[in-house]
Design brief:
Length: 325
């Protein structure tokens, strides 16, 4: 068992490092190909930070551990809002005024409910294809909106400015390809190691792979977003901290949650439909309310951040209690 725990920790560490190098390499290559920094930030970086979840869920689904894949997707979304935004707001209250983020929040709510309803009769290949089509439509809308905003010279969207400022500029093309290749290989190997160790631990303790996915694996694959959000808020880039979470949650639903349906179609556990999905919808709804104003529009203060963090820990305790019954 000690070997499995060590393998899990090593897999998570390598996963986080590999994701960072993969994003750096991919972004640099895209810039050298002449792609707009804003479009890179809105699409490539967003998908890159979700690469750990995508690969872990793909491998888990391929091996028949769909509970781990589903738990990873939903657990990561819950961690993104409860843990990441909660911790970030405690460090420094968040104020986000980006119109692009405000327009994304209603879409995230709608997408979350659509995915919930699709899961009621199990995840099928058709459901997976629908989610991928929604992802393509969302990315198209995102690119179109960003371009329209850029054309309005009077509009200076804070998110756009922060995305451009965060783009790496001092990486050579040769080093970028090395980062890209090494990061991709590291992601593949560490994801395989992580899934193997997580399944072994679940079997040893007699808990479902769903529980492991909702807790340990979801937390581990959310570490890149946690690091990115804390780094952003320390630089007073609040828009980027919130944007990381909204974008990651969208990709987790459409690019990660779709994989069990595409690779290993089958029923979704009743626990997911009655407990985990409603909790995720609740956290998403709270984010929507905070974005449009509870005490102040587009603001998450320390008290609200503490509430999010408390909610996350209460949920983790409920999952733990259900696993030990």
């Amino acid at each position: 068992m000690l070997f499995n725990i060590v393998a899990l920790v090593v897999g998570l560490v390598v996963l986080v490092i590999s994701a960072d190098k993969f994003i750096t390499g991919t972004v640099t290559i895209a810039r050298k190909l002449g792609i707009s920094p804003l479009l890179i930030g809105l699409t490539i970086v967003g998908l890159g930070t979700s690469a750990p979840e995508i690969l872990v869920s793909a491998i888990a689904s391929w091996q028949g551990n769909t509970g781990l894949a589903v738990g990873n997707a939903l657990g990561s979304n819950i961690a993104n809002v409860g843990l990441i935004l909660g911790c970030t707001a405690l460090i420094s209250p968040l104020a986000f005024k980006s119109e692009l983020l405000r327009r994304e929040l209603p879409i995230l709510i709608v997408v979350s409910f659509i995915c919930y309803f699709l899961a009621f009769d199990g995840l099928t290949k058709v459901d997976g294809i629908i989610m991928l089509m929604m992802l393509a439509a969302f990315l198209s809308w995102l690119i179109h909106s960003a371009r329209q905003d850029q054309k309005k010279k009077s509009l200076h969207d804070p998110l756009a400015e922060e995305l451009i400022n965060e783009m790496p500029v001092d990486v050579s093309e040769k080093k970028a390809w090395i980062y890209f290749s090494a990061g991709l290989i590291g992601l593949l190997v560490s994801s395989r190691l992580l899934v193997w160790a997580a399944v072994n631990i679940a079997e040893y303790y007699g808990v479902s792979d769903l529980v492991i996915g909702l807790t340990i694996v979801a937390l581990g694959t959310s570490l890149p977003e946690l690091a990115a959000s804390i780094s952003s808020v320390l630089k007073n880039e609040d828009e980027l901290a919130v944007g990381n979470v909204i974008g990651s949650n969208m990709y987790n639903l459409l690019a990660v949650f779709s994989l069990p349906g595409l690779i290993a179609p089958g029923p979704v556990a009743e626990t997911v439909l009655n407990r985990d999905f409603p909790v995720m919808l609740g956290f998403t709804g709270i984010l929507f309310i905070l974005g449009y104003g509870l005490t102040k529009s587009g603001h998450i203060n320390r008290l609200e951040g503490g509430g999010l963090l408390l909610g996350y820990f209460v949920y983790q305790w409920i999952v733990y209690q259900s696993a030990t019954l």
